[in-house]
Amino acid sequence: MPQELLLQVSPEIASNESLLKDYLSKQIKVSANEIQHVSILKRSIDARQKAVKINLKVSIFLKGEPFQEQKIELPDYQNVSTAQEVIVVGAGPAGLFAALQLIELGLKPIVIERGKDVRGRRRDLKAINVDHIVNEDSNYCFGEGGAGTYSDGKLYTRSKKRGDVTRILELLVAFGATGDILVDAHPHIGTNKLPQIIQDIREKIIECGGQVLFETRVTDILIENNEVEGIVTQNGDTISANKLILATGHSARDIFELLDRKKVFIEAKPFALGVRAEHPQSLIDSIQYSCDYRGEFLPPAPYSIVKQVNGRGMYSFCMCPGGVIAPCATSPGEVVTNGWSPSKRDQATANSGIVIELKLEDFKPFEKFGPLAGMEFQKSIEQKAWHLAGETQRVPAQRMVDFTQNKVSSDIPKTSYVPGTTSVEMGQVFPGFLSQILREGFTEFGKSMRGYLTNEAILHAPESRTSSPVRIPRDAVSYEHLQIKGLYPCGEGAGYAGGIISAAIDGEKCALMIAEVLRK
């Protein structure tokens, strides 16, 4: 039987198989030549001491012990071309994993996606970055794979009680992700590698008899006697089905407006909003690793920080080591930021959303919009940023210390945000209470992370699409909408997920609930 050990080693030993075998041979008192194979089961970084260590959980196979590399296979998906149809609106992680689960359960998914496939999206991303042109159906938020495809592919989740996280990770590995995502404490695929995985998932859905329709925007949901009957697309085509998974993501404002017009029960939901802060990666490394130079054996350092400021949580969100800031508007006339990293996280800068928890009472000036009040609050800030930045996709920006001192920055260095920046006093972007919390919060951050509060850091505003501003309520057991039979609100856009893994789990759960209803 293989031996399992928990150990703490230097980054160099952790990254070198020969050095690791030598280290383990001393621990278990055998010759290094007697060690046939070492499997790394878990890996994390411990940077609490000056000498950074790597925590490993390993399984050691000695010569003569049976060992075989474990290859993760896809489930035995059946052909569902003639099976009962279920409409899945949205080809993000919730929609795609719902579709795969439906196939596994013998049902035929018809996936409706307003945006383009992963390759087609690239031209529209270039248009927003270079020409400041926003395609309302194809951008960083809309298109095959959803917002995660071109904004990082982070797989860390705290939602482990919601479902089988390992199953989702193993499916991603079976579709081409590196096995490291099963090992690392904070797994990550990278924006450069995720598109191919997403494409392979789509091809599997089609191969098994499902359908995937791109550039097909839902303009109406057909409802009769509070039961779903199908959808209507922008071309006037009708697709009929009495089961509909609505997985449109956190930015599909037209869907929220459609539901509101049709008197389908939805409600305003608190979310978080703030800025995206960019530091030199070398500075974050020196703070987190307590060193002047990170070296070749440690990855670029992330950070996570939370403070309570004036009764509000202010925290880092979607932190991207060695990454860049991207323009994520979904309509003309607004500016939105987000961040992503390539798989190697090898860019010169680190960025993170720094956001503040909002409350329903903050949306009071927009109460005439009813359940869309939070969405209109969000929209107003994004539109204000667009005006302040010269009515382009340039972003309002300010040096961090200057912001805390209410001082317009005399210059803004070139940042990773390709459309460019405009020097603005950030207090003009946000309501006064938010600006004050941000100013005090950055001062507190600087006390916890010495060197974080610096004018080398550039703030970009706003970071506003942290989660959906609307919840589409559903039954906690059946996952069916509280009012409309056959409607299954799903994922981030429905207010029930926050990230790739939790959205994928939610998609699978909705598919399972539909299959259970149909069996009965």
How would you explain this protein's 3D organization?
- With 520 residues, the chain is α+β, with helices and mostly antiparallel strands.
- It is 27% helix and 23% strand.
- The protein has twelve helices and 22 strands.
- The strands form six sheets. Strands 13-14-17-12-20-18-19 form a seven-stranded mixed β-sheet. It has a five-stranded parallel β-sheet with strand order 6-5-4-10-22, with helices on one face.
- β8 (227-233) and β9 (238-240) form a beta hairpin.
- α3 packs parallel to α12 (500-519).
- The longest helix is centred in the C-terminal third of the chain and has 20 residues, at 500-519.
- It is globular, with a radius of gyration of 24 Å.
- The model has no long low-confidence stretch (mean pLDDT 95).
